[in-house]
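P.,

For your records, the input lines for the assembly:
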Amino acid sequence: MSKTNGWLNSNTFHHAEFRDLQRLVDEKERLGLTISLCIPTLNEEATIGKEVVVFRSELQQRYPLLDEIAVIDSGSSDRTLEVAAAFGADTYLASEILPHLEPKRGKGENLWKAIYQLRGDIIVYIDADIKNIHPRFVYGLVAPLVYRPEVKYVKAFYDRPLAAGGGVRPTGGGRVTEILIRPLFSLFFPELSFIIQPLSGEYAVRREVLEAIPFPIGYGVETSHLLDVYTRWGIEAFAQTDLDQRVHFNQPTLSLGRMSFAIMQTFLSRAESLGVVGGLPELNRVLRQFQARDDEYEAVEFAFTEDERPPMIEVAEYRTKRSTSNG
Amino acid sequence: MDERFARILARVPAYASEMRRLEDILLTNLVMVAEIPSPTFGERRRMEWVLDRLSQYRLERCSTDEGGNALGILPGRTGERNILLVAHLDTPVDDNLDHTVMLQPGSVSGVGLADNSLGVAALVTLPLALNALGVELESNLILMGSTRALGRGDLAGTRFFLNNTDLQIDSGLCLEGVRLGRLSYASIGMLRGIISYRLPDEYDWTRFGAGGAIVSMNDIITRILEIPLPRRPRTAIVFSSIEGGGPGSKVPTHAELQIEVRSDSGDIVEDLHRRISNIAHEVASLAGAEAEFEVIARRRPGGLEFSHPLPERARDILTALELPPRISPSTAELSAFVDRGIPAMRLGLTSSEDLDEAYERLDIEPIAVGMAQVVGLLEAIDQGCCDHE
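Structure tokens returned:
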């Protein structure tokens, strides 16, 4: 593990290291990079306006780090797109990007379609439900890609002190990370267990990586990214940045159960195709949860099949668009 | 009219248009500062944010003082005058409330926005505004996010700075979120206190009855309401909050009443202080209980005359911006300036319809006008147009 300990030291950052935004913009311009921000949404009218304003004023008007800010929506029933557009974001309905494809609905679908729609050499994905929004959520993730050419994929992690004392401050992920993902990674992909918050929804990635990996459309997208990038480029391709606190809406345990069920499907299918586990039976795709009603328990069943989009580079329209824009 | 001031008046409407281009930056500052909880005595994180912002905007001598205030100086060309611009950092909001800000086209919602996150956001945005407008002041402009303004804070931050700074402050402006058009240049007399009523452990229920502290506090309120108040000088007693009792069927042994006395006359404030204190002690002694009237904040009445050039110029600027000026007395930051005889005013920045709720909604569109008003008045002060002849 000494190699990974070295990785932990050299590829783990704190956003404060990158607070000299003028230097970051100068380096970005020297390298001729373009950077796109993608915010995937579904009914986020409460928080989307401030995210767009904060990123636009700080990271476009004051410091031209971002070349575009795009909101890609799954079909909100509220005013998410109207609010985002009013504050200056480019807004898209996921279903209207590559419209001839069979429609799929999920966060991963929006992230995948962003690769086609947006023009950046780097795409940074930020969730729309952040309550304490700050420019660091973007520049903290983008900066390692600008300063370190060998880094391809930067994950966010957050300060979540579980207890304090004795000079040790445990920093970890959420419940699904600590109960499911970290034990699985520790068993089968130990180097990936050094990623502090593998399920965080904020990351920045080079286009050459994004276009080359498949995208589960649901909860499994972050897990599959880590496995696919690790398999192809190794742990050295990753970096992670401490973005301090992220305040968001906590999910109830039953929702986390459904999330875990989808992630397990992704993990097991990847592990099997990589030959890490074998002889798996056909997996049951129905999750059964229970709720109490008066004196009786009632089973609620959720059927999940984690659908997946292929690597974008395999989509003919994408290759045409890129060759046209590059030509 | 003075030619210099006429030129300022002529360009102030254009300032409002220009300020709309900085709207995103101001809203960004508003969102970021408003999401930092900042109850009175708990302003440290907001103070650090202001300092960080002032440093980023390249102000000089960015620092904090022993009062916990966040300070930065925008040096003037000559620096012969010092103008202090203040926005208090504390809000009357518990830090356990959800501080998420919601931005919608035309409005911004959240807690503590009017009092006083918008004032702080405007304060830190001002250097950029002056730069964008091409306004370069002769005077030094001192920007200060002040601590402990509200409630028991009793303006401690601003008072500390004014009592200890080695700079001579020539004028002051206090920024508040609302309301645009409202001008305050005089402070009314005010006394804020808490009446605590407590039944002793050895209370004799057989002799004094089982009405408890809440009933006795009710007696105190009734007696206070019987005090005749003059119509002139204007005087009022405000019952701000009441607390007492607990769960279950126990007779309450403790109650607290927060009360505020306001008057144009300092003598009347002192007289009412004495009377209320006597009522509390009398009701308590009749019931064999204990009462205390603790004063937590005081303001002396005073300030500028209506005809003083500073409020006069402020009214002219509002009129040039097509806003009818409304005059209202203040019990806020202004009092700290009044106490030291420094000409000062309090300015509001925007309008709002939902100020009675903890979750406030402010209008975005008028903020540019509010900022134009601040810049225009700063220029007028800077060029000597507000000096008393």
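Two observations worth noting. The interface with chain A takes residues 24-25, 27-28, 31-32, 35, 98-105 of chain B (CB under 8 Å). Chain B has two domains: 3-187+301-382, 189-299.

Regards
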